[in-house]
Design goal:
Blueprint lengths: L2 H13 L11 E4 L4 E2 L28 H9 L6 E4 L5 H17 L4 E5 L17 H10 L8 E5 L10 E6 L4
Helix pairs in contact: 3-4
């Protein structure tokens, strides 16, 4: 038997239990169950101008004091998580857009996106920020496409990712 046919046989054996995922759906980890992603979700019909103010880390948009306090203290719980480790920037952008829209459509309020802290080389300046996704995700959250869904975002507790993650408070689905 030649090497190529042995490799093919081994590959078929290795992949026999793998099933193809439908290209219309992506699956994200949800703390309660797996979340099937709907590709086309309409922006919520709420009175927000397209050119509304950008949210900064830790700022709130029209949130009552009790909700803001609970969110800052981590008392709201995490209802869904998106881990972007291993994603390219383009893949991460699509995943974040779909994750936020679908989390909103499923009525989630508090979700986490894990961006990671970035890879630092030994000769890099320790004061320079590393991590493309860590830098880009807050910009994407303030985009015209996502901003209507978002009330606030913060860095969660260290046990939930700390500065390598963003906890996001979504609007209520009405």
């Amino acid at each position: 038997m030649n090497q190529k046919s042995e490799d093919e046989k081994l590959w078929k054996e290795y992949t026999k239990g793998i099933k193809k995922i439908e290209s219309e759906n992506t699956v994200f980890k949800d703390t309660n169950k797996e979340l099937k992603v709907k590709k086309h979700i309409q922006t919520p019909n709420i009175s927000i101008s397209k050119n509304q103010e950008s949210l900064e880390l830790g700022s709130f948009d029209n949130v009552d004091k009790n909700t803001a306090k609970k969110f800052r203290r981590g008392e709201m719980g995490i209802e869904a998580t998106l881990d972007l480790h291993g994603f390219t920037e383009d893949m991460a952008y699509d995943a974040v857009i779909n994750f936020i829209k679908n989390s909103y459509s499923y009525g989630k309020r508090s979700v986490i996106i894990i961006t990671g802290k970035g890879i630092r080389k030994t000769d890099d300046d320790i004061f320079l920020s590393k991590g493309i996704l860590k830098e880009r995700v807050p910009r994407w959250l303030n985009s015209d496409e996502l901003r209507p869904f978002i009330l606030s975002y913060i860095h969660p507790d260290a046990k939930l990712g700390g500065e390598g993650a963003l906890q996001i408070l979504l609007r209520r689905k009405r």
